[in-house]
Specification:
Layout: E1 3-6, H1 14-25, E2 30-34, E3 37-43, H2 47-57, E4 66-68, H3 72-78, H4 83-92, E5 97-102, E6 118-122, H5 127-136, E7 140-144, H6 157-164, E8 170-173, E9 183-186, E10 193-196
Parallel strand pairs: 1-8, 2-8, 4-6, 5-9
Antiparallel strand pairs: 2-3, 3-7, 4-7, 5-6, 9-10
Length: 212
Amino acid sequence: MARHLSIHPDDPQPRLVSQAVEALRGGAVVVYPTDSGYALGCQLDDKTAMERIRDIRQVDKHHNFTLVCRDLSELGSYAKVNNTVFRLLKSLTPGAYTFILAATGEVPRRLQHPKRKTIGLRVPDNRIALALLEGLGEPLMSSTLILPGEQLPMTDPWEIVEVLGHAVDLVIDGGFCGMEPTTVIDLVDGTPVLVRKGLGDLGAAGLEEVEP
């Protein structure tokens, strides 16, 4: 049964964050809060944990995971970013956006889009998530916690333990953190292209007139 760990959403307790980080380093699949709902996460190089997340979501090998980063500097290590894109990213992070960018050699091939060699990255505006990423010292491989057949992510940590306690190792309870997905923006060619309208403000990204 998964462990339930309650962490304060505004002032995350370092001792509890450290426990979650150690669990991740030990191969755990963790449910954690972001600014757009709860997500499943594991270490970047943990193939076994990644397959467990695929099993929970019931998605195939072509499912695109997101690399969740602690800041823009870390994001830049995993994606190719020119000056124009950097300025846009700086204005939108942290925030409820996922950016599709060309992957660098730091990204494992299995995480890249097989044809485009791209990767989805984001920097969440959630103190628990950022504390977790700071402690881990690397991005989390992540996927929104949406169960098969459902349209919306799970939002109740205790319900998550009840339903997924057999499939995950740790549920970080940060209270209700929303249920609207991120806005997804393709920046591969340097010009913002809306892929999915979500929580992130389109106007801030210069996408007011763009239709999905």
